[in-house]
Design brief:
The complex is a heterodimer of chains A (62) and B (172).
Chain A: H1 2-28, H2 30-61
Chain B: H1 3-11, H2 14-39, H3 41-65, H4 70-98, H5 103-110, H6 116-151, H7 158-168
Helix pairs in contact in B: 2-3, 2-4, 3-4, 3-6, 4-6, 5-6
The chains are: A mainly alpha (62), B mainly alpha (172).
Chain lengths: 62, 172
């Protein structure tokens, strides 16, 4: 039992540590993550726009 | 299409070429931003980081909110961020260069007697311009995005906006 207790506590500690690390990373790099998200959105919209232009070009050719 | 364009399109499809080009532009802009933030030390992490993020978010809100001007707004946002960051980089070089001259040297170059106080305050004025522009450019961009919503009738599409006016206005 003692062995299991130690094992679970160490597993728990690892997870808590990981959670804290991830949380700290997110808070420290919040601006960068936000910008990457926004830029990805803009990029996807631009690609959609190009797709639309290509469809229009094809229609014009046909 | 020019010869260079044709050569590129032999290896890439036009869609892939445009996608890669845009991806490269975004990565370059983010890289330039990070470099500038590091260059400006505390002012960079305290204000420039936040200001550029604000510009990106404002541009994205306009892209989401005004479907009629989507492509144009994306281009304008990219150019605004690029112009702002490039100004910060270049103007910093100008200030560094100008700070090398002593008031006496400035006086000799102008051929007049320049008081020490005015030569020193000129450098301070150049630094103040940097601060003012670095604050007002993102604010101005956000105001410009805001007026886009007003001009384009919020999130309405062209047909919806015109039909609203037709309903309200009494035609003779």
């Amino acid at each position: 039992m003692e062995f299991l207790g130690n094992l679970f506590s160490s597993i728990g500690a690892i997870h808590v540590n990981a959670a804290i690390t991830i949380w700290t990373f997110l808070v420290n790099n919040l601006t960068m993550l936000l910008v990457i998200g926004v830029v990805t959105y803009l990029f996807s919209e631009e690609i959609k726009q190009h797709e639309h232009e290509f469809v229009q070009d094809k229609r014009r050719l046909m | 299409m020019n010869e260079k364009g044709l050569l590129i399109h032999k290896h890439f499809t036009p869609k892939l070429y445009l996608a890669l080009k845009n991806l490269f532009i975004y990565i370059a802009l983010i890289g330039l931003w990070v470099w500038t933030v590091n260059m400006y030390a505390v002012f960079g992490t305290g204000w420039i980081k936040f200001a550029v993020a604000l510009m990106w978010v404002a541009g994205a809100i306009a892209v989401w909110g005004i479907p009629e001007e989507r492509e144009q707004t994306i281009k304008e946002t990219k150019w605004a961020v690029f112009g702002y960051v490039l100004f910060l980089v270049l103007y910093r070089l100008v200030i560094v260069k100008f700070s090398q001259f002593s008031p006496d040297q400035v006086g000799v170059s102008l051929g007049v007697n320049v008081p020490v106080a005015s030569a020193t305050s000129a450098l301070g004025f150049a630094q103040n311009i940097l601060m003012i522009v670095s604050i007002l450019t993102p604010v101005g961009f956000c105001l410009w995005v805001g007026q886009k919503f007003k001009v384009n009738q919020g999130r309405k599409k062209k047909d919806e906006a015109f039909s609203k006016y037709k309903g309200i206005r009494r035609n003779p």
